[in-house]
Amino acid sequence: MNNTADVIIIGSGIVGGSAAYYMAKKGLKVLVLEKDMIGHGASSRNGAGVRISGRVDSEFGIARVAIREIWPTLSEELEVDTEYEKPGSFLMAVKEEQMAALHRSCERALKQEIEAEVIDGDELRRRCPYISEKVVGAVWYPEDGFANPMKTTLGYYKQGRKLGVRYVTGEEAVEIRKCRGRARQVVTAAGNIYEADKIIVAAGFESRALMKTVGIHLPFLERIDECLITEPQPPMFRYRLSCVDGNFYGHQTQHGSFIFGGNTNMERYEDTYAGQPRNTASSVSDKARNAALFVPALRGAKIVRYWAGWLDSTIDRLPVIQEIPEVPGLISACGFSGHGFALGPGMGRLLTEMVTGEPLCADISAFQYDRFHAEGCFGPRTNYPKV
Ligand SMILES: Cc1cc2nc3c(=O)[nH]c(=O)nc-3n(C[C@H](O)[C@H](O)[C@H](O)COP(=O)(O)OP(=O)(O)OC[C@H]3O[C@@H](n4cnc5c(N)ncnc54)[C@H](O)[C@@H]3O)c2cc1C
Questions:
Q1: Is the pLDDT of residue 225 over 90?
Q2: To pair with 384 at 20 to 30 A between CA atoms, which of 220, 235, 345, 370?
Q3: Is the pLDDT assigned to residue 343 strictly greater than 60?
Q4: Tens digit of pLDDT for each residue in 255-298?
Q5: How close is the Cα of 204 to the center of ligand 1, in Å?
Q6: CATH 3.50.50.60 region(s) of the chain?
Q7: In 3-state terms, the chain is what percent helix, strand and coil (to 5)?
Q8: Top-level class of domain 87-144+221-314
Q9: Ligand 1 centroid from CA 304, angstroms
């Protein structure tokens, strides 16, 4: 088998898969290396949120491309029902002192020309009667929505393959090698060597270890995020819900189940089984409790499944998207910090433009890796907005 390509992409998540698809559409020969199954990382484990709200200005460009230009017609493009819907979302507060944060979030959105409106608890329950009396207010974002993560990621895979993308699964990249000063080869655990003009690292949380093989240090936090899904429920509402402190988000899916996720705010603790992240008994019950508190009608709902995934989080919660100046030919596309599923389709287009040399659809100057050096220490930066 010929092991050369124009572009090697490491990782078959939504970022790697969408990039492979858009590059193949441009006629490039693309090879995707995936250490496990297709979409095995965060792209198949996430909470399905596709939101344009709550983005810092630097990330808003990619979010705008993804959410306004690509998601609305993606099902037709991929010939798969991605279950993308844009019914709008409520960012909620449960304490009066959280209302100021809602107003800040709303103001930022309006500045970015996103429709947004702060409403009180009574108005929220008028629009969505299922919400608990405990919720004191919300911001309404009509452009937000959700999609099916697995179907979307597999959609890119299937269409990419039709266009000639070669996927090699069960092939773990362990080293990137330079030839004559440029990134050129990818060595795998099985001892295979693949070669290309461009190498894209889209390996989610595990990108850090790969970048280190060519001396590039990306400060990632080792964090797990979790979701659960209920038995199908009678149709209640289509909105996406989230809470201002990040402890809760979710929506009702097309087949009736509710999917919920959120931070636990408990100690940072990672539990793994055979290298895979997994939930803990207390974190699952935390999410179940939140679901019943926010939507009391779900009090008796049975949980059918729960899961965990690595959160691809950098220390400033912004991605690293850049052709690395010290290693020409090597492109970093990782660190989406818990909000990369929604950006994935936009990332595919952007990475294709980076490879072909076309004008970029979004400004990526804020995502260079050397921002972590600029302050001379790895203390967390404060440019990520607190909603
Ligand atoms: C529980 C949870 C909930 C989330 N909720 C949301 C949400 O609601 N909305 C949102 O926008 N985002 C959400 N996210 C974040 C989002 O899922 C990620 O930002 C996004 O999926 C990242 O996509 P990716 O393609 O960069 O990485 P991944 O999907 O992680 O893909 C990386 C791939 O690389 C492979 N890989 C790793 N190392 C190697 C190697 N050495 N060689 C070969 N292959 C390798 C992995 O197996 C994996 O398949 C959530 C994440 C989690 C964990």
A1: no
A2: 345
A3: yes
A4: 999 999 987 655 555 666 666 776 776 678 888 899 999 999 99
A5: 5
A6: 4-52+150-219+316-374
A7: 30, 25, 40
A8: alpha beta
A9: 23
Q: What kind of fold does domain 4-52+150-219+316-374 have according to CATH?
A: FAD/NAD(P)-binding domain (3.50.50)
With 0-12 CB in 10 A as exposed, 13-18 as middle and 19+ as buried, what is 73? Answer: exposed
| Tens digits of residue pLDDT in 118-130 | 999 999 999 999 9
Q: How distant, in Å, are the alpha carbons of 107, 112, 314, 337, 347 from that of 319?
A: 24, 20, 7, 7, 11
Contact yes or no for 346/22 (Cβ under 8 A): no
Atom 33 in ligand 1: which residue has the minimum CA distance?
11
Which residue CA neighbors atom 3 of ligand 1 most closely? Answer: 46
Ligand 1 centre distance from Cα of residue 132 (Å): 32
Distance in Å, CA 317 to ligand 1 centroid: 14
**Location of each CATH 3.30.9.10 domain in the chain:** 87-144+221-314
